[in-house]
C-alpha cells in the first residue's frame, strides 16, 4: 500500500513537471515568434502573454508610432484566434461595439427581431485609442470584460473563450479624450507602458521596416488544438502553489496602499504610513491582489517552478497595481508616481525584512 502511494505521488510529480515544461516551452515559442516583427519590448510582450494566460485584459499606454497596434496584430497571428479591431472615436456608440437588434422580414412575410452581433464577438479585441470615445461607449465594454457576456434588449449572449481585450491609449493628447473611469481601469489585469526604443533597437526597426523583406509569423498552436491548449495553460496557472508567507506578503502590499488601513500591516514603518497618507487618495481593490497572485503564478511557471517566490511577486506588482492606485495633487506636484509608491512599499515589506 505504501509503495503504491509512493508511486502515485511520483507519477503526479512527473506529470506536473511535464506540464510546467510544456507551459514554459509554448510561452517561449510565442515570445520568439512575435519577436520576428516586434523589435525589443521583450518585457512588454512577456507581460501581455502573462495577462492572456491568466485570463485578464491589458491596457497599453505609449506615444504614437511605437508599434502598439502591430504588437496586438502579431499576437493574434501567432495565437490564431478570431481578431477584431475597434477604432474608438467620439461618435462611436455602444451598439457599434456589442451589436443591435434589427427588424428583418421572414419568408412568410412576418417581421421579427434579429440580433446582429458587433465586433465584441471575437476572441482577441483591439480597443484602439479607447480614451477617445465617450464614457457611455466605454462602459459598453464593462460587462464584456468582467463577465464575458453582453446583454442587449434583455437577452444575454455569452462570449466565446478565450476572450481578451487589449486596449491602447495615447498619454499626450488630452483634447477630445475621456479618461477611463476607475471602475473600467480596475477591469484591466495589467497596465503597461511602451518604452521608446534604444539606439540599437531603433536602428533595427528602421532596417527591418524599410525593405521589401517580409516576415511570416507561424502559429504556435495547431488550429484544432489552440483553444484546448490555451485553456489547459490557464488551468495550470491556477494550480500553482502559494505559500502562506508569500500570500501574506501580497496581502500586506495591497493593504499598505490603503491610507488609514495600513495599521494592519506588520513591518510597515511610521514614515511609510505617513508617506501613503500624504500621497495616496485611494488604494487598490481586492481585484488588484487577485491579479498579483495569478501573475506571480504564471511567472513561477516560466521559471519551471510550481510554487510562487517573493521574486515572482516583485516582478508583477507594478503592472498589476499602477492603474489601481489614485495619487493626489500633492504627489503630482512632488513628481511622485504610483510606481514610486509601490517600490517604496515593496522595499519595506520585501521578504519580511
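^ Assign residues to that structure.
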Amino acid at each position: 500500500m505504501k509503495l503504491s502511494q509512493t508511486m502515485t505521488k511520483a507519477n503526479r510529480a512527473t506529470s506536473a513537471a511535464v506540464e510546467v515544461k510544456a507551459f514554459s516551452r509554448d510561452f517561449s515559442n510565442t515570445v520568439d515568434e512575435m519577436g520576428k516583427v516586434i523589435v525589443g519590448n521583450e518585457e512588454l510582450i512577456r507581460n501581455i502573454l502573462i495577462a492572456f494566460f491568466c485570463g485578464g485584459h491589458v491596457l497599453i499606454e505609449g506615444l504614437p508610432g511605437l508599434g502598439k497596434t502591430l504588437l496586438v496584430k502579431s499576437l493574434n497571428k501567432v495565437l490564431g484566434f478570431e481578431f477584431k479591431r475597434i477604432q474608438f472615436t467620439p461618435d462611436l456608440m455602444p451598439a457599434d461595439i456589442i451589436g443591435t437588434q434589427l427588424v428583418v422580414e421572414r419568408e412568410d412575410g412576418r417581421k421579427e427581431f434579429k440580433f446582429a452581433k458587433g465586433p465584441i464577438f471575437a476572441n482577441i479585441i483591439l480597443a484602439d485609442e479607447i480614451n477617445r470615445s465617450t464614457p457611455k461607449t466605454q462602459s459598453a465594454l464593462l460587462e464584456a470584460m468582467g463577465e464575458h457576456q453582453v446583454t442587449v434588449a434583455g437577452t444575454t449572449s455569452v462570449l466565446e473563450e478565450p476572450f481578451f481585450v487589449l486596449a491602447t491609449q495615447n498619454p499626450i493628447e488630452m483634447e477630445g479624450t475621456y479618461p477611463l473611469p476607475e471602475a473600467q481601469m480596475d477591469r484591466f489585469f495589467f497596465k503597461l507602458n511602451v518604452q521608446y526604443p534604444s539606439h540599437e533597437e531603433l536602428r533595427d526597426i528602421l532596417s527591418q521596416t524599410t525593405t521589401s523583406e517580409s516576415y511570416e509569423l507561424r502559429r504556435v498552436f495547431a488550429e484544432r488544438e489552440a483553444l484546448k491548449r490555451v485553456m489547459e495553460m490557464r488551468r495550470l496557472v491556477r494550480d500553482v502553489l502559494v505559500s502562506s508567507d508569500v500570500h501574506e506578503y501580497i496581502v500586506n502590499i495591497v493593504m499598505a496602499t490603503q491610507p488609514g488601513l495600513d495599521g494592519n500591516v506588520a513591518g510597515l514603518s511610521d514614515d511609510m504610513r505617513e508617506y501613503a497618507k500624504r500621497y495616496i487618495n485611494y488604494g487598490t481593490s481586492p481585484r488588484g491582489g487577485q491579479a498579483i497572485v495569478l501573475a506571480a503564478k504564471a511567472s513561477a511557471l516560466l521559471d519551471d517552478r510550481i510554487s510562487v517566490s517573493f521574486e515572482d511577486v516583485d516582478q508583477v506588482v507594478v503592472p498589476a497595481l499602477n492603474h489601481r492606485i489614485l495619487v493626489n495633487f500633492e504627489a503630482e506636484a512632488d513628481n511622485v508616481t504610483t510606481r514610486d509608491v509601490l517600490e517604496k512599499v515593496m522595499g519595506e515589506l520585501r521578504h519580511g525584512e
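The chain has two domains: 23-194+225-235, 240-352.
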